[in-house]
Amino acid sequence: MLELGGPYTFDRSLRALAPSGHIAQIGVFTGFGPCSNLIRLQQINGTIDGINVGSAEQFEAMNAFLVEHRIKPVNDRSFAFDEAEAAYDELAGGRHFGKLVIFEQGQPDALPNMTNCCQISSGMV
Known about the structure:
Structural class: alpha/beta
Shape: extended
Helix content: 25-40%
Strand content: 15-25%
Oligomer: single chain
Distance between the termini: 8 Å
Order of helices and strands: EHEHEHEHEE
Largest sheet: 3 strands, parallel
Number of strands: 6
Strand order of the largest sheet: 1-2-3
Radius of gyration: 18 Å
Low-confidence stretches: 111-116
């Protein structure tokens, strides 16, 4: 399970977690607040891992570096937003090499950015 919210969504994620389930915690979009009671995690033999990402400034610096050095991700295939279901079917099939990209707008060959696309990946979380 991917947990994005923080203290105001974490308890709900704990209740929904299956026995031996796994929570990947990335971000705390609802801010910091009261701590959850983690006894349920122990009772169901669940696990939690934190995923750290850089700051917005680091993200911008990385994107500027990619543009400056003309580094492009390996994209296997691009899908229009209305083809998102097909993109996830392709992801589930595991036949792709590189990223599968879903574009909301713009040119599919453009360097992906946060405003016009979503990259889906088959990596473990």
